[in-house]
UniProtKB/TrEMBL annotation:
GO cellular component: Mis6-Sim4 complex; nucleus
Keyword check for Nucleus: yes
Stated name of the protein: Centromere protein O
Alphabetized InterPro entries for the sequence: CENP-O
Gene that this sequence comes from: cenpo
Protein species of origin: Lates calcarifer (Barramundi)
Stretches with biased composition (Acidic residues): 75-87
Pfam families attached to this UniProt entry: CENP-O
Keyword Coiled coil appears in the UniProt entry: yes
CDD domains cross-referenced by the UniProt entry: DRWD-C_CENP-O, DRWD-N_CENP-O
Swiss-Prot/TrEMBL keywords: Centromere, Chromosome, Coiled coil, Nucleus
Recorded coiled-coil stretches: 33-60
Amino acid sequence: MEGASTRGVLSHLSLLEVQARSRKTQPQQRSRVKELKAEAEALMIQRDKLKAEIQTHERLQKLRMSMDKQCPREQEEEEEMDEDSEDSQLLRLMARHTHLKDLLHAHHLIGGYDIIKTHQGKGVCVSVATSYEGVCLDTYNLEIDLKPKLRISRHNVPPFIPLNSLAEQSNMQTNIRAFLDTLSRHLNAFAGRKQQLKLLKEQHKSVEVMESNVLCSILVLMLTVPREKTAVLCTLDYTDHTRCLPTRVHFDCEDKELPDSPEWKKNCHLLMETPVHTALLTMKKMGNIV
């Protein structure tokens, strides 16, 4: 009887141990189930987010293509969108933003020149803008055929700019960027000299412009010295057509000693190193001219 009783106690203890272990594993299993559910929910959220991003990207691509006017079908789809919808307005803004970023990137790659396709991609139109002292001036355009080789078909570049010579010297066929850079220097220098002449006439009524040419590479001025109203003929020679400053300054005067005086040698250096309208203003403040 004692042996049976002992076995009964041991069996009962074993059952209690199994129940205790079961109670310990159940919370662990429930915790694991919660973790798996949370992970599954996070994956579903990520999936939905990726789906939304893909749909947004596809709609942006369609909008950008319609902006380039290369896909009428997408343009019709854009027109069918609800214009009052916040999502539609946001998509349009995003498409416009990315489109402008692409244009700016291309603009940077080609050196800041505006280029658009012409003749269904068989040619391009290049715009070269000019400016002086932060003021935008004239813009010049060149239409270039791409095949069978690069060829300037039309342009509005002034005839006194040696366009064909610049194209040959820069080897436009293999390095169009170098050609455009050289042309831009010539055009901006011309625009700068022309603008200086305009400002000179506006700001210095007492200075008489005796001679100038269309390229603004020669400028002859009549200056008046306050002392005895002596007249000085000032010739500015701009032999370097890629610069706005003269390479030579010469004075003619009845007083033969005046051009060689220290004062007028300083004036000579001033005119060679400073825009003419600014140099004349300095000379007037110093009392060298009227």
